[in-house]
Every structure is written in C-alpha cells, then in structure tokens.
Design brief:
Elements (H helix, E strand, L loop, with lengths): L25 H10 L5 H21 L10 E2 L6 H8 L19 H9 L9 E3 L6 E3 L2 E2 L11 H11 L5 E5 L1 H6 L2 E2 L13 H18 L3 E5 L12 H16 L6 E6 L7 H6 L5 E5 L20 E7 L9 H11 L6 E5 L17 H6 L4 H17 L5 H16 L6 H8 L11 H12 L16 H11 L5 H22 L16 H6 L1 E4 L6 E4 L2 E3 L2 E8 L6 H8 L7 E5 L1 H6 L1 E3 L5 H21 L4 E5 L11 H19 L7 E6 L8 H6 L4 E4 L8 H8 L4 E4 L12 H14 L18 H21 L1
Parallel strand pairs: 1-5, 4-6, 5-7, 7-8, 8-9, 9-10, 10-11, 15-17, 16-18, 18-19, 19-20, 20-21
Antiparallel strand pairs: 2-3, 12-15, 13-14
The chain binds glutamine and zinc ion.
Length: 778
C-alpha cells in the first residue's frame, strides 16, 4: 500500500468567501457600463482584476495569511452557481449559439445566459438557501455534455500567485451544483439532475488536477445542499451522492487538499458520510448548527481531518460573543486535534466595513461587525488557536462587555411595546369569514372579471433618484421634494388610467427600498450609508439594522396614498411591506426570538393599515416576498417558523373591516412547500411570481384548494424583454385552466422599479390587450 501524499496544513483561520461587489459597488458599476455599451470587455476585466487584487491585499491587511491558502478565491462576475454551470459546460440548448468552437462561452455570453435575450428566457433565479442572495438555476438533462469549459478559476488562482498570494480556489461542490439544478426542457418527466453525478465528477477531478498543476495547495468545495432538508432531492440522496463524490475526488494523488464547507446549518448524518471519505478538511456552521457530540458513532475518522469551526456569523452583522465562539472551538478539539476557525458562511451576505458609517453612532457601531471586522475576529481566534488563549483573552473580554452594554442600552427594550404585545389575544389575529369579506368587497370595489393591477413600484428614474439624493444633501427642501414626488405620482396614475389598469398604485417613487423606507420611519431601526450587499447579479440592497424594540412614531404612507386617491376614481392600493420581509431583508437583533420581533413590526403596520382605511383607502397590499426565504432548512424547525411568520402577517392585517381588501405579494418560485402557509395568510388577493416557470405554480395552487383571489404573474420583470400579447394570453389561459375564473387577477411578476419606462408601457399595454382578449372569449 502506498502512503498518501503529505498535505500542507490547513490555515488556522479563514473565511468561506468575501463580498465581490467592491467596497463602493465598483463591480456593479463596471458590469452595468459594459451592458450599456459604455465600456469594453477589456475595461470590465481590468476592474475585476483590480478588485480581486484589492481583496487579497485587504484580507492580508486584516490578518489572513498571504501564502497559507487562507484567502478564498471567491470572485464572480454575476453568480457563483452560473460560474459553475458555465465552467462545466452545462449551457441550456437555447443558448448553444453562445458556445464557441472551443466549447466556451465568453463574458458577453455568460451575461446573456443570466439575463436572457430575444425569445431565449434567462436561467430561472431563486434564493440561495435561507439567504436573500439569489442564484441562477442550472438546467441539466440527459443530453447535457459536461466538460471543463472555463479556466477562469485556474486563471484567478494564478493571477493571485503572480502577485505573491497563495490563495484557495472556491467552487460550488458537485452535489450542491446538481441538487440545485432543475431538469432541462429536453429532460423526460421525472428526470433528476443528481442522477448525472458520475458524468460530472471526472470534470471536477480535471479541474482539481489543473488547479494542483497551477500550484493550488487547498481547494474549497461548497456543499450547503448537505445541510438542507428543503430541496427537491432528499437528504438521503444528497448524502449518498456526497459519499460517491468525495470518495472519487479524494482518490487521486495529483490534486489539492480538499476542504468541503457546509454553511447555513448543521450537517447532521452527512457529517458521518464526509468523515468516511478521503477529504482533508470539513467546514461546519457552528452559528446555526451545533458542535457534534464527541464519541458519536461514525465520527472517529474526523480525528485525522481538520475541522474548520464556522463560529463567526457570516450572515449577520453583530459583533457577537467571541468568548462563546472560542468555547465552540475548544469543544471541537474533542473531535480532532486539528481545529481551525472560520466564518459560518461566506461573507457575501455582509457589507464591507463598519468604519466609514457616519449615521450609526459610536454606540451602535461598537455592537457591529461587517465583513472586514469579521475577518479580524477570525484572525483573533486563529491567533488563540496558534499561540494559546492567554494572548487573546482581553479581546474576548471586550466583546463580552460590548454585548452586555448592548443588551442594557436604552431602546433595546421599550415597556409600552412589550405591554401591547403581551396583551394580544387570538381575536387580534383573525378577520371575518372570507365569504363575508368577498361580498363586501365586491360591493365596495365593483371590479371587472380578470381585474388588472401592478405589484406597486413603477420605474425609479434617474430624476427620482436625483431628487432623493438632493433631499438628503439639503439641495431640495422637504416641500420641493414632495412636489417632485407628487408630480411623479400624477404621471404614473395617468399612465395607468391610459393603459386601463383597474386597481391603481402610486408607484412608490418616494421609497429608496421597500424595507429601508419603513426602517427609516420606524423606531428601533438604523440605516447605513454604504452597507451594500449583493442580492443578485448587479442588484445590491442596503439592509437596515433592526437593533431595538419597534414602534411607529407617526403614520408613514397615509398622505401619499390619500393624495393618489384624489387623482383617480378607481381604487388606489395602499402599499406596505410585511413583517416577515422587513425582518428578512434587515439585519435583525439576535437577542430575542424572531417571532417576537415580527409581532412588534406587525403591530406598527396594523396601525398604519387602520389609518389608511380611515383615510378612505379600500385596498391595501402587504408584500411578503421573503416568506419562503426565511423558511428554515431543517424540517423540524419549519412549523414553528410558519406559525410566527403567518401569525405576524395576520396580526398586521386583521384590524380592518370586511370591505377593505387585503392583498399580498410573494415572489420567486418554489411555492409548493409554503402553499398552505400562503393560504393561511388569509389575504383576499395574493399575487405571485409565475412567468419564469411558465405558470408551473398554478398546479400547486389548484391542488391546495386555494379559494381566494390569486394573481399569478403573467410576465417576468427581471429582464427588459417585452412579452408579446400572444404569450401573455397563453399564460392567462393556463391560469384559467386550473383556477376558477372569478379568482384570477392579472398582474406582472413583481414590481417595476428596476425597469425603464419604454418597456414598462409596452409590456403593460400588451398585458391589458391580452386580458381584454381573454375577457372577450370567456
Ligand atoms: N411592492 C413592491 C414593488 O412593487 C414589491 C417588491 C417585491 O416583491 N420584491 O416594488
Ligand atoms: Zn415581488
């Protein structure tokens, strides 16, 4: 028997990934300039190279090692799952025109797959585990020919090496890649992408060999699929696939050492499976998950591997308790003598740095850690692992003291808010029967068959953004700003009247973001100036910080809605963001159960909705696009989540009369698992994303027996493409084939804020023409 090659040691501290957008969203700007024809591909590549170099240097400056494989090579132009699809030749048939004679797709083609072109729809987009990051869903069928079709990762590693950094390439692991894929259009009924594992593995092996040749000592394969119980494939299947995959990839000598990272929760039984394979290191999420019990069956082989304890929260901004993190690392040492420290997830979910934030105040800042501060925390704990805890004791104590100060600070607990929450009864969570409401609303609103509406926002033009910036800068007075916004609302109302929409929206011009806007107007929140986080592609959001008890000092949206209603005879839909989404898209306090925080937000919204009703608004939409996103990955945690999330929505919306029509909106596909919860929201009308999946969701709706109003989106708003009348007609008819006529509403997939006016007018006009055609037929 030959002895396995000696592998270099895993670094004592690392992170699973770093933000890719750049500290000032440089990548977003460069990519959009390229899309807009304002720069060349060379210019874009130069910006990307610059950012990668800056990241490597920054990470060394923050305490990671220059040449010990601790720096992850985790760059992506758009999405890391798309990167893997393109790297392995998994390009759907409708895009084969983009593949050149060498089997490769260039950068322009890569973006085309992400964004669609002409009649070729882009890859579907969906949430990455329980985060607000969205990945593109690869399409795999029996016909997919896997091959190593990109050397981007090898090049990026070599680029680092030339600059004097020995980094660690990061790629989505084979099990996760296939588990997240969907069957291609060509695949037969019942085809499962994971069944192609054996064909894909040799391509991964080749990539590993190439990386080893280039000098990589460690490679990171991300396998979050192994922690999730809410994928299309079962945990038993992903575990079995992991056993095959890592037995195979671990076999050759000519490869880098393999680090399999499992962020977002605990591995459960999959840990035993990984322990039995020849991989060298395993990353555990010890923020969401717990330290496995030493001595548990099947874990003995861990003693010969490096265990990388993800004890620094990569998914939330709190400075946290470093002393507790240290204890988890100590506990991990019972399983293996070789323990390293890491973040629980990639830092992709966090803004770059706390330091330049001027609005936060020193106290709040002392409670926070963004990506750079998390790297410093990792470096501190790594020092403890290397040299003993004595040297870092004072840092651990300072973090414990900061946490204690935070919990005792004014505003973190507000007696009035707590008392109101404690007095709630079951009646506060329920409305009258739907039958009663439906009749009252029919009389009040008198809407036609197939009522049409939009999801709320209209294009956020340069003028609108400029006016907001000028208000913040003090160039525009409050009154002047109000006048600009009112003019915009008047324009949007007139446009909707012209096009013929039935339920009118004000277009949300005054909102910078659907969550931040409310955060700015509620107590208990703070907002950042530059805390941008990638949501998908070049789209970034700036999550608010929910740090204290939440209350509403005064009405927020009432004046805007009332003004809008003066402009039209048609019903105006008030527009609010729901409690679950406000939580999901903020960084939320971690010192009390989420459900409690959600009820506080719900009570503030409940007051807003009753104020809207008193002011004469008869339709109110409460958006909950993030309902699915926060669904826990582990089945055992799901019922409790659905209970508090649904409960908070009902608490927000149950204070109104029967004649007030409550709408909700949810986006992104995969509704199957939450369809019962959607039903329990008890909204009068629910609009959902459906166009990208060509109305697949209506079958779920049909089988669930959902009996209230439903608006499956009839066109995709994520791309500038204008849907034809025929296409929209077909989708409406598909919906009508499954759902009783009277329930169906016609609307786009989501809000229009990221679109331009030309395509918006053209698309909505086609939507109305299609609706009229269907109305005439029925
Ligand atoms: N009302 C919001 C809008 O139209 C909803 C956005 C969303 O679902 N993400 O912009
Ligand atoms: Zn939406």
């Amino acid at each position: 028997m030959t002895t396995p090659p000696r592998r270099p040691a895993f670094p004592s501290g690392t992170i699973l990934g770093y933000p890719r957008i750049g500290p000032n969203r440089e990548l977003k700007k460069a990519v959009e300039a390229f899309w807009g024809g304002r720069s060349s591909v060379e210019e874009l590549e130069q910006v990307a190279r610059g950012l990668r170099r800056q990241t490597r240097e920054r990470l060394v400056g923050l305490g990671l090692g220059r040449t010990d494989s601790s720096i992850p090579e985790s760059f992506s132009y758009y999405d890391h799952v798309l990167d893997a699809a393109v790297a392995f030749g998994a390009v759907p048939a409708r895009f084969t025109g983009l593949v050149n004679a060498q089997g490769r797709v260039d950068l322009g083609g890569y973006f085309t797959i992400a964004r669609g072109e002409g009649d070729s729809l882009p890859l579907e987009m969906t949430k990455w585990f329980d985060s607000n990051y969205h990945y593109l869903v690869p399409e795999i069928g029996p016909e997919t020919v896997f091959s190593l079709a990109s050397d981007a990762l090898v090049q990026q590693f070599s680029e680092g090496l030339q600059q004097g950094f020995l980094t660690r390439p990061v790629i989505v692991g084979p099990v996760t890649f296939l588990a997240l894929s969907k069957p291609s259009d060509e695949a037969p009924e019942g085809f499962v992408p994971l069944s192609r594992l054996d064909d894909l593995l040799p391509v991964y092996a080749e990539l590993l060999r190439r990386l080893a040749e280039a000098g990589a000592e460690w490679v990171q394969l991300d396998e979050p699929a192994l922690v999730s119980e809410s994928l299309d494939v079962s945990s038993a299947d992903t575990s079995a696939a992991a056993a095959r995959a890592y037995e195979y990839l671990g076999a050759p000598d000519a490869r880098p050492a393999i680090f399999v990272a499992a962020p977002y929760n605990s591995l459960g039984d999959a840990l035993t499976v990984l322990a039995a394979t020849p991989i060298e290191a395993i990353g555990l999420d010890l923020v969401r998950g717990t330290v496995p019990a030493a001595g548990a069956a099947g874990l003995d082989p861990l003693a010969s591997k490096t265990l990388v304890g993800g004890v620094i929260d990569g998914h939330n901004v709190w400075r946290g308790d470093l002393a507790e993190a240290w204890q988890k690392l100590e506990a991990l040492r019972a399983l293996s003598p070789s323990v390293s420290v890491s973040t629980s997830t990639s830092l992709l979910h966090l803004p770059h740095t706390v330091e330049p934030e001027q609005l936060l105040g020193d106290q709040l800042k002392s409670w926070l850690a963004f990506a750079d501060q998390k790297v410093e925390q990792v470096a501190t704990l790594a020092e403890g692992l290397e040299k003993g805890v004595a040297g870092i004791r004072s840092v651990l104590e300072a973090s414990t003291a900061a946490l204690a100060a935070r919990l005792a600070a004014p505003g973190v607990s507000d007696g009035a808010v707590r008392a109101r929450e404690a007095a709630l009864t079951a009646a506060d969570f329920a409305r009258e029967d739907y039958a009663v409401r439906a009749k009252a609303q029919e009389q009040a609103l008198n809407l036609p068959f197939l009522p049409t509406t939009t999801i709320g926002s209209f294009p956020q033009t340069g003028d609108i953004r400029r006016a907001r910036a000028q208000l913040v800068a003090g160039v525009l007075s409050d009154d002047e700003y109000q006048a600009v916004m009112r003019a915009e609302i008047a324009r949007v109302v007139e446009l909707q009247e012209e096009i013929g929409l039935d339920v009118i929206v004000h277009g949300e011009p005054e909102r910078n973001d659907m969550v931040q806007y409310f955060a700015e107007n509620l107590d208990g929140f703070a907002v950042t100036q530059n805390g941008w986080v990638q949501s998908y592609g070049t789209r970034c959001t700036r999550p608010s910080l929910l740090w204290g008890d939440v209350s509403r000092p005064k009405p927020i949206t009432v004046d805007w809605s009332v003004f809008t209603q003066t402009l039209t005879e048609k019903p105006v839909k008030g527009m609010l963001t729901g409690p679950v989404t406000i939580l999901a898209w903020s960084f939320v306090r971690d010192d009390q159960p989420l459900g409690e925080t959600a009820r506080q937000v719900a009570l503030a919204l409940r007051d807003e909705i009753t104020d809207l009703q008193s002011a004469g608004i008869t339709v109110v939409q409460v958006d909950e696009p993030a309902l699915r996103e926060l669904l826990p990955l582990k089945k055992a945690d799901q019922a409790a989540y659905l209970d508090w999330s649904v409960g908070s929505f009902r608490l927000a919306t149950s204070g109104v009369e029967a004649s007030t029509q409550i709408h909700t909106h949810l986006c992104y596909s995969e509704f199957g698992v939450v369809i019962d919860a959607i039903d329990q929201l008890d909204a009068d009308v629910t609009s959902i994303e459906a166009a990208r999946s060509r109305m697949e969701v209506v079958t779920d709706i049909k089988s669930s027996g959902f009996a209230r109003g439903i608006g499956p989106g009839v066109y995709d708003i994520h791309s500038p493409r204008v849907p034809s009348v025929g296409e929209v007609t077909e989708l409406i008819e598909t919906a009508l084939a499954s759902i009783p006529d009277r329930q169906v509403w016609v609307n786009p997939d989501c809000g229009l804020k990221t679109r331009g006016y030309d395509e918006t007018v053209a698309s909505l006009t086609n939507m109305l023409e299609a609706t009229r055609a269907v109305r005439a037929k029925v």
